[in-house]
Design a protein that fits this description.
- This protein has helices at 24-35, 42-50, 54-61, 63-79, 100-109, 119-126, 140-158, 170-186, and strands at residues 13-17, 39-41, 88-91, 110-116, 161-164.
- It is of the alpha/beta class.
- It has a 5-stranded parallel beta sheet with strand order 2-3-1-4-5, sandwiched between helices.
- The two termini are 29 Å apart.
- The chain binds shikimate-3-phosphate.
- Shikimate-3-phosphate is lined by residues 20, 24, 43, 54, 93-95, 132-134.
């Protein structure tokens, strides 16, 4: 990064949602470096709080328990300074939109951006890691397609903006995100999903 381009978020959050491997963490970190806004990763916070990895939480306590931890964390973020009063970028887990409570908290917290990608691109981007319990399967493409089919409407309903990231490097995505976030916080009524 050669220079900083701050965004006046008026103390609200920039939230990244989307399927596993859509680039939330990578894009969030780059936006954080560019703007100086600190970034939080929900999965990392949950792992640190519980003292276990996501696969361990899924295996030992089940997916429903993990989903409850996600909701508890979002409630905490909404009600506790500095998260409720300062600017942060939040990278969420891909399934955060499954809960209606989570979806409404996310909308209230700030600017919600859905990073979208094709199932084929997600297969490629997730192929090098084994830390996603839902993808520990032979047929990753089919599993990803099924999850994406179930979740597409939920991402759509939660997000203020959708960015198609297939075929794009990180920096162009960050550029679009930066411009849209600046516009959103200057004029929150202007946002509409495309
Ligand atoms: C999940 C996505 C993961 C993590 C967990 C479940 C999902 O996060 O929360 O493995 O249901 O899509 P990422 O989207 O950051 O990989």
């Amino acid at each position: 990064m050669s220079f900083c381009r701050p965004i006046d978020t008026k103390g609200r959050l920039i939230i990244l949602i989307g399927m596993m491997g859509c680039g939330k963490t990578t894009v969030g970190k780059e936006l954080s470096r560019l703007t100086g806004i600190p970034m939080l990763d929900m999965d990392t916070i949950i792992e640190e709080q519980i003292g276990k990895s996501i696969p361990e939480i899924f295996q030992e306590s089940g997916e429903a328990h993990f989903r409850a931890l996600e909701t508890a964390l979002l409630r905490y973020v909404e009600s506790s300074p500095p998260f409720s009063t300062s600017s942060f970028i939040i990278s969420t887990g891909g399934g955060v939109v499954l809960s209606p409570v989570n979806r409404s908290i996310l909308r209230r917290l700030g600017f919600v951006v859905w990073l979208d990608a094709s199932a084929e691109v997600i297969v490629e981007r997730t192929s090098r890691s084994n830390n996603r319990p839902l993808l520990r399967t032979e047929d990753r493409l089919q599993v990803i397609q099924n999850l994406a089919d179930k979740r597409r409407n939920l991402y759509q309903e939660t997000a203020h903006l959708r960015i198609e990231t297939s075929g794009l490097d990180v920096l162009p995505v960050v550029d679009v995100l930066h411009a849209s976030a600046s516009e959103f916080f200057a004029n929150p009524e202007s946002a509409s999903i495309s």
